[in-house]
Predict the 3D structure of the following.
Amino acid sequence: MHSPPTTPSATTDVLVVGGGIIGLVTAWRAAQRGLSTAVVDPEPGGGAARVAAGMLAAVTELHYGEQTLLDLNLASARRYPDFAAELTEASGRDIGYRACGTLAVALDSDDRAHLRELHALQRGSGLESEWLSGRECRRLEPMLAPGVRGGLRVDGDHQVDPRRLTAALLVACERAGVVFHRAWAERLTVAGDRARGIVMADDTELAAGQTVLAGGSLSGRLAGVPDDVLPPVRPVKGQVLRLTVPKAYAPFLSRTVRAVVRGSHVYLVPRENGELVVGATSEELGWDTTVTAGGVYELLRDAHELVPGITELPLTETRAGLRPGSPDNAPMLGPTRLPGLQLATGHYRNGVLLTPITGDVLAHALVTGELSDEARPFTPRRFAVPSPASSPAPSPAPSPAASAALTEQPV
Ligand code: GLY
């Protein structure tokens, strides 16, 4: 039972629920368009981007059946250089954007067959990707294991530092006048068949013309969202390691190196500051964010097969985050069937890559009420199932999945 919320003091044009990179970029772009904008999150700048490696891997993470998503990924990747420059200018902070390229390698004949298929898919999709022999791979990256059997050189897959990106977005939002409410969103307010804002955990109501649900893996848990509008987002755990390359060892790797080892993806992302990020497990374990001995062992074992020298490096951090998975691995962007409620969630493996285009798409949708052409396939309405409870008017009754408020800490 909730006591009646306090009367809202003011109505903001846009209220973004969730202060991870997707919520922040949405707020920044909305504020730039002249909309009064607020973000509600107990710890803005948290979320999965605190863990993510920051690969911008539209080409090397291409999967069968994801060609539509590929177009969005490529469009966002193309925006990164200008986005990085604009955000650096707006915040005074570098975001660690590096056009360093990626090398995907094979360790045995099975891996090589897998990479050959990926290469064919890439070429068939019109993407630039060059097949290299094992020797050519090692010439590019001398730290690679002698057993590397071949690889794909993809110069168009870059990287950014997600922690720096987050820090820059926070400053840019503040400078653009975004207001931060450091609290949990308790429930969506629905009245007169439209979303009207949210109620926070202390029962304070925040009124808004448009509410954007950008809560990452928690986006499906906000109470008050009607069943047929609730985003079908689930947490997909990823464990990630951070190591440090001492100056004496540099340059250890000059680009991102990745492989599929015994069916598991492993990648090593070298930063200019000496950080080396090794990721990532992919585990469907609900809200569990425990770093396990098994997860760390498997990442180190697979990374060691690729680059034996990593065992010499200091291991400085182990962490687990939750990717916001969606039924088709693609995000949900823009207006829902409930007027006044938009989504920016379900980015799964591509949240960092899709940050620039998500900001642009949401700003456009908030100003015009429409999705831009490139974002049409990603309307949240593709998952909407009309339910008796919501017909003809959306019901404010939460589903069982939504009965818990947005009160769990994403990492
Ligand atoms: N895109 C990298 C990952 O999800 O692990």
